[in-house]
Amino acid sequence: MTNSETVNETWSNNVSEDTAKVGDKIADTASQIKERASEFGRSAAQKIDERRSSTAATLKSTADSLRSGAQSSGQTITDVANKTAEKIESTANYIRDRDVRGMLADIGQVVRRNPTPALIGALGLGFLLGSALRGRD
Fold it and tell me: Which alpha helices (H) appear in the chain, and where do they start and end?
């Protein structure tokens, strides 16, 4: 084997080893990022789950207040208030009975059944959030 062949072979081996090391570093970094993202998601879901019960209780209280306040008003206002209170109470029960995964699954089903309204709603929500964030500056 000539000197130049030995140098080429050594260089080739070094490049292969360096490439493998870089690949391993990238894989390790990607794994760490994935783990941190998963941890963040679990933490966020846990915080939402912790607040579900108090949110549901607040909604239930709001529905009860709406009903009791409407009883002294006219029949039309009472009917509207009772329907609104029923919707609020229904929302409270939904929040109390579902965890975050269940809510996300329900949202996914609604989006799959109604993609166009879901897209329009997402665009509207994005616009409102963008406007709100821009207003802070």
Answer: 3-70, 75-97, 100-113, 115-136
